From TrEMBL, chain A:
Main localization, broad class: membrane
GO biological process, one term: siderophore-iron import into cell
GO molecular function: transmembrane transporter activity
SUPFAM superfamilies in alphabetical order: ABC transporter involved in vitamin B12 uptake, BtuC
Record flagged with keyword Ion transport: no
Lineage top rank: taxon: Bacteria
Gene Ontology cellular component terms for the protein in this record: plasma membrane
Transmembrane region(s): 12-33, 74-91, 103-124, 130-150, 162-184, 204-225, 254-282, 294-315, 322-340
UniProt cross-references to InterPro entries, sorted A to Z: ABC_BtuC-like, ABC_transptr_permease_BtuC
The protein's name: Iron complex transport system permease protein
The family this protein is said to belong to: Belongs to the binding-protein-dependent transport system permease family. FecCD subfamily.
Lipid bilayer topology: Multi-pass membrane protein
UniProtKB/TrEMBL annotation, chain B:
Entry keyword annotation includes Transcription regulation: no
Span of the signal peptide: none
Gene3D superfamilies listed in its UniProt record: P-loop containing nucleotide triphosphate hydrolases
Residue ranges of domain ABC transporter in the record: 3-231
Pfam families, per the entry: ABC_tran
The entry's keywords: ATP-binding, Nucleotide-binding, Transport
Annotated protein name in UniProt: Iron complex transport system ATP-binding protein
């Protein structure tokens, strides 16, 4: 009897490598910036901070940069990169469309309305630095509800209706955000709004981290627990039903989970493009389409990726910062085209 | 395992369909376009909830079972099998284990063995590592049947399994289903294939069962004229002895 090869290569080496890369990326992300800080110092400071050690008073300035400015920013980059990658994987399976990304449901465009309203009209001024995030999250929530209600049918949420409704709504929300930008009383407000629309981690503090991290971890856990169902959904709704999946309920739950994750991530980082669309495909090219594998690798790869994107955003035009969306595209597109050509990836069709 | 449809109705499409498939039998459903064949089948594999009637598996109400339990007993090859991502053939077949698995269960050696065995049964073991999207129509159909077999079902439901296949693959697929299948309920377009491969045939017209029984008793020229509006001549296959129909276009026939 011949052996039939039904197993994929084990993931452990790749996952271990990605974890090491992530740890290295975090240290590099903290060390690199307009004011470079030597690696040994970074490690000393991090050790002092986590174990309650002491540092000489002369290092206080650098310590402040490492602990209060760079570390929360790097960690948030990791969380956002991981979250967007995972949401991209889930949404592509949920709407069964290889071109879908976390923003296809109109959630980020919805968030941009709230964010630009704060940036240009000065709403929620009493909330201080959190005004933008809160407004972005609230309007993301409102957009999610609108898309859900408009796309819903008696037979549940169907993939094509979801994509069409989300895309149509996204145009509406973007138009509204653009209108706000052009009505902005002064150029600086318009610039701030545009910067947010392209994604930015500037001005991040420890305060933004816990909620985003908790939602990302919980959401990723939920999706991992449903990885087999995501595989089933990729086969078509009727086939998924014959595999014992309650398609209507599963899709409704996925919609809520991915919308919540997207809303929170967009609120802290703006609409960072490309990551949620291409990272899932990059990962599938390497480990295959099985969601039990993709959902383990995608967050690790996405986390490191966005840390380096943010480092580039800080360094390339220092002391100015570039929007993250510009760099994700500049880094990601060549990388993606290279991998696609090299590996003969079918990419959702012949 | 016996499958029975008892008065299954779907408003405006299917009316009071009653038929059964005894354990190990291959039972066919034939009928003109729009006669409710696929709708009837969708009620059986639970993509559609009938407005009346029951689907019984050895006397148990299938529609009252949790979806996961019915998926362990009844597998189906549907018309909408469309794979969006680059799954390998082995991964597609392994999805048949889904109803047997909890959220964090790993694939066991037995799962891998079942996948390998099913691929062998459909003569597709050499395709295991291939991307499903690169397969030909005949290969896809065989792989999807393997996926259904991996579910270890008592009943296999097939919606036009010979669709888009050339004659060689049509015969291969039906012979395969007869050889490896448990109880089978299948919709077929081709009356001669139904006559050659089914133990029993039911004819649907306007959403109602108008005839049922052994192919030789059911697929008569009179019935074909009444249901399909086509003149037919009955001949006996010279080697297999199965009843076969030769069709004449109404305007051309004498």
């Amino acid at each position: 009897m011949t052996t039939v090869h039904t197993r994929r290569r084990a993931l452990h080496p790749l996952v271990t490598g990605l974890l090491v890369a992530l740890a290295a990326s975090i240290v590099c992300g903290v060390a690199l910036g307009p004011v470079p800080i030597p690696f040994p110092r970074v490690l000393t400071f991090l050790q002092a901070a986590t174990t309650g050690g002491t540092i000489p008073a002369t290092d206080a300035g650098q310590y402040h940069i490492v602990w209060d400015i760079r570390l929360p920013r790097v960690l948030l980059a990791a969380v956002v990169g991981a979250g967007l990658s995972v949401v991209g994987v889930a949404i592509q399976a949920m709407v069964r469309n290889a071109l879908a990304d976390p923003y296809v449901l109109g959630i980020s465009s919805g968030a941009s309305v709230g964010a630009t309203a704060v940036a240009t009209l000065g709403l929620f001024a009493s909330l201080g630095v959190y005004a933008l995030s809160v407004a972005a999250f609230l309007s993301a929530l409102a957009a999610t509800a609108l898309v859900y209600l408009a796309a819903r049918t008696r037979g549940g949420l169907t993939p094509l209706r979801l994509v069409l409704t989300g895309t149509a709504m996204a145009y509406g929300f973007s138009a509204l955000a653009m209108l706000l930008v052009f009505q902005a009383p002064h150029g600086e407000a318009a610039r701030a709004a545009m910067f947010w629309l392209l994604g930015s981690l500037g001005g991040v503090t420890w305060g933004s981290l816990p909620v985003a991290a908790a939602v990302t971890v919980a959401g990723t856990g939920y999706l991992l627990a449903n990885a087999r169902r995501l595989n089933g959904l990729s086969m078509g709704d009727e086939t998924a039903t014959t595999l014992g999946i309650d398609v209507t309920r599963t899709r409704r739950h996925l919609f809520v989970v991915t919308a919540a994750m997207t809303g929170v991530l967009v609120a802290v980082s703006g609409a960072v493009g490309f990551v949620g669309l291409m990272l899932p495909h990059l990962v599938r090219m390497v480990v295959g389409a099985d969601h039990r594998r993709v959902l383990v690798v995608a967050p690790l790869a996405g986390a490191s990726f966005l840390i380096w994107v943010d480092v580039a955003a800080r360094l390339l035009a220092a002391p100015e910062e570039l929007p993250l969306g510009v760099i994700t595209a500049a880094l990601g597109v060549p990388c993606f085209v290279f991998l696609m050509r090299r590996r003969g990836y079918v990419f959702g069709g012949k | 395992m016996e499958l029975g449809l008892d008065g299954v109705s779907v408003d405006g499409i299917v009316h009071d369909v009653t038929l059964s498939a005894a354990s190990g039998q291959v039972v066919g459903i034939v009928g003109p376009n729009g006669s409710g064949k696929s709708t009837t089948l969708r009620c059986v594999y639970r993509a559609l909830r009938p407005s009346g009637g029951a689907v019984l598996l050895d006397g148990q109400d299938l529609l009252a079972m949790p979806l996961k339990e019915s998926a362990r007993r009844l597998a189906a090859l549907t018309q909408d099998s469309h794979v969006e991502f680059d799954f390998t053939v082995a991964e597609v077949v392994a999805m048949g284990r889904l109803p047997h698995k909890g959220a964090f269960d790993r694939d066991t050696d037995r799962d891998h063995d079942l996948v390998a065995r099913s691929l062998r049964q459909v003569d597709a073991e050499h395709l295991a590592g291939r991307t499903f999207l690169t397969l030909s129509g005949g290969e896809r159909q065989r792989v999807l049947i393997a996926r259904a077999l991996v579910q270890e079902p008592d009943v296999l439901v097939l919606d036009e399994p010979t669709n888009h296949l050339d004659i060689r693959h049509q015969l291969d697929v039906l012979a395969l289903v007869r050889r490896v299948g448990p109880t089978v309920l299948t919709v077929l377009h081709d009356l001669n294939l139904a006559a050659a491969y089914c133990d029993r045939v039911h004819v649907l017209d306007g959403g109602r069962v108008v005839a049922g029984g052994a192919p030789a008793d059911v697929l008569t020229p009179d019935l074909v004229l009444a249901v399909f509006g086509v003149r037919a001549h009955l001949v006996v296959h010279p080697t297999s002895g199965a009843p076969q129909l030769l069709f004449g276009h109404p305007e051309v026939s004498p």
